[in-house]
Design brief:
Pfam families: DNA_pol_B_2. Its EC number is 2.7.7.7. This is DNA-directed DNA polymerase. It is an enzyme of class 2 (transferase). The structure is a single chain. This protein has helices at residues 5-17, 27-35, 76-81, 97-104, 128-131, 165-173, 194-206, 210-227, 243-250, 281-307, 330-336, 338-341, 404-410, 413-421, 431-434, 451-479; strands spanning 42-44, 48-50, 67-73, 85-92, 113-122, 139-141, 150-152, 158-164, 177-190, 235-240, 255-262, 265-271, 311-317, 320-325, 344-345, 367-369, 376-383, 386-391, 394-399, 504-513, 516-525, 535-536, 543-544. The chain is α+β, with helices and mostly antiparallel strands and 553 residues long. Among the domains are: 5-37 and 76-227, no CATH class; 235-271, no CATH class; 423-477. A hairpin with a 2-residue loop joins strand 20 (504-513) and strand 21 (516-525). The longest helix has 29 residues, at 451-479. It is globular and about 85 Å long. The termini are far apart.
Amino acid sequence: YYYTAPGFTFDAMLRYTDVSLELLTDYDMVLFVEQGIRGGLVQASERYCRANNPKTPGYDAEKPSSWLVYQDCNNLYGYAMGEYMPYGGFKWYDGDLNRSLELLNGMTDKSDVGRIYEVDIAYPDNLHDAHNDLPFLPRNAVPPGSKVNKLMATLERKERYIVHYRNLKQAIANGLIVEKVHRVLEFQQSAWLAEYINLNTSMRKKAGNEFERDFFKLLNNAVFGKTMECVRNRIAMELVSCPRRMRKLINKPTFKHVTTYTETLAAVSLQKSDVHFSKPIYVGFAVLEISKELMYDYHYNVMRRHYNDSIRLMYMDTDSLVYRVDTDDFYKDLVDNPALLERMDTSNLPVTHPCYVGTRKKTPGLFKDETAGHTMYEFIALRAKSYAYKIEGDEKLVAKGIRGHVVRNHMTFYDHKRCLFEVDDVGDGDESEELGTDDDDFDDGDFGDDDEWKDVEMRRRARLMARSVIDTIHGNAAAATTTAISGVKFTPTTLPTYTPYTPYRENVSIRSFEHRVKTIKTMKMTLNRFDDKRVVDDDRIRTRAYGHYTLRM
């Protein structure tokens, strides 16, 4: 018996493929692979665009034609798992590390031996403008002014960057320069997982309803999830009703916390004293790296190669891309260029559509039109996982962390535009003068040669500015809800659901606390244009990746 589908599909995969996966016994190898694990990349490269073509409202024939294209990769992780995956033979490369780069040229996607490199790699300035939309080799880092670790695509030099050999080859081919190789981990690889992935893919194509399609997709994706389980986070839990036993557990060095249910029953959580690294995390690492390689290959070797400077990446979310394309007719381009069309799954387009091809339905690694042939004519992205777009009489909104009923019923595309473009009502730009931070009065000479004092003072002024903006947002939200009858003002924690523009929305959810089900109402800031994954220009639309040479001027 199995409690979950992931547990079932992982065992089914092992039985179906009859593979023997080697577990890492060298702790340095475990840490090496763990440090190279990076999730899906999500970023807003250009935050607003309105298309102009004959199929869009308000088409202006005097202006250049442009299209908005939203493409999604079919079963991205399923595609990656169908490629050559590591399975054993792990050892540190003991040859000349500099020569290991030369050997990289002779390696292919189907080489019997694969490698993971740890390198110092530089991003030449002459590539910054061309790669600004989507820099190679994203890294986990804390953005300036933040406390949260995020995956960001930057143009900075990277030290001790751990990368799969396929991604490193791709980066070098596009101009990045490896300065030093620190370590290389070799392994044996083959397409041992492809047979099981293809089985579920074929079953998904034959599925007659949405449940079956989602189920067979889950059977593929859950295999990846099982290889990525973090055994470090596992805890031991014990239900206790004896005071002596409770004291004994609390005094243990592995004690974490206790949850009290009644006067005589509590659950004690303990950290594991021993951690058994029993998961083939190297498979998950390879899946994440190869999936990124596909997305970069499609962007640079398909779309950018065809359109050159006539295409801009607006937004990316792990397996999807939103483009602005300056062309007369995007779909005509597909018909006229088989090299473009063959990388796309157009089976979701109308049968009468000139680009329709039914034979590539649900093929992993191909890109489908997320709007199913409907024309997207306006797009706006406030930040990662927060965007909206309009298509032929409808609008779609995405807001991670916000309840679905709030997104559907209490948020609009227009709210997003107001959030992005409206001036914060803090004296219409006079706040800098009020706080003594006007550019005309702000001079490095005010601080003398004491850089430390300068940094402290600048941080102090930044806090004042931030506090002023936050107070204004709260004040506007409260003022906007003044009732015409009573004149009573609501605080942001008591705002009603229906209000004029405010970044706040009431979220209602059902949650369990200590096995007691409760209805929770929270007031959340659902609209926020602050994006710290990239440097936003003054127009609030264009952005630059960290490390761009213009940011050093």
